[in-house]
Amino acid sequence: MKELIAKDLLKIKAVFFRPEEPFTWASGIKSPVYCDNRLTLSDIDVRCDVENGLATLIKENYPDAEVLMGTSTAGIAHAAITAHLLGLPMGYVRSGAKDHGRQNQIEGRLEKGQKVVVVEDLISTGGSVIEVVNILREAGAEVLGIVSIFTYGMQKGLDRLAAADVKNISLTNFDVIAEVAAQEGYIKPEDIERLIAFRNNPSDESWINA
């Protein structure tokens, strides 16, 4: 599955490598990779692979799941489609509480004690998805874990997930996509080492001229 999803993401340029002309993140970090998993929703075949893959991950790793909660906004559609495939209810967590009405931050019905799986599209440093986990826990949910389409595997993200005592299972990851990209001719084989150097320490830009 990891290789299939990697090929899908590369094909539709949801993951796009450009080590010779790095992208600049909002944080100012230079990155050899651009990721926009929202593009998976626009390609029917890739969307089917992703949603069926997420459903499989949940059945295999979180068989007791009672409700899916998407992250706002990128995880909402994936949570909805996957919940439909599994016959489960879903909702989503806003990035902030509404300033009107009931001032909800959790949208959809969530009962205390319900077993929840969080659906996320991408995990880098893990900060935003852990915030969602904490909001759900504060509301009384039992968060079984996270499923995501793609994870960088950055140490900061791994450490944060461990500290929050939450498990993440991804359809594919940075290492697999880099290998597949080299095999498929998207990048040169010698670029892999530079990409992994970036992943291991994004703030160290020595990979750019390596």
Q: Strand-residue fraction?
A: 15-25%
For the termini, the CA-CA separation is 32 Å
Strand order across the biggest sheet? 7-6-5-8-9-10
Helix content: 25-40%
Cα shape:
globular
Largest sheet: 6 strands, mixed
Rg, nearest Å? 17 Å
- Unreliable stretches: none
Which structural class do the helices and strands define? alpha/beta
Compute the number of helices.
Answer: 7
List the helices and strands in order: HEEEEHEHEEEHEHEHH
Task: Tally the beta strands.
Answer: 10
Walkthrough of the structure:
It is built from 7 helices and 10 strands. By secondary structure, it is an alpha/beta fold. A 6-stranded mixed beta sheet has the order 7-6-5-8-9-10, with helices on both faces. A two-stranded antiparallel ribbon has the order 1-4. The radius of gyration is 17 Å and the shape is globular. It starts with a helix and ends in a 10-residue tail after the last helix. The mean pLDDT is 93.
Q: What would you say about this model in short?
A:
Helix content is 39%, strand content 22%. It is built from seven helices and ten strands. A six-stranded mixed sheet has the order 7-6-5-8-9-10, with helices on both faces. A two-stranded antiparallel sheet has the order 1-4. Strands 2-3 form a two-stranded antiparallel sheet.
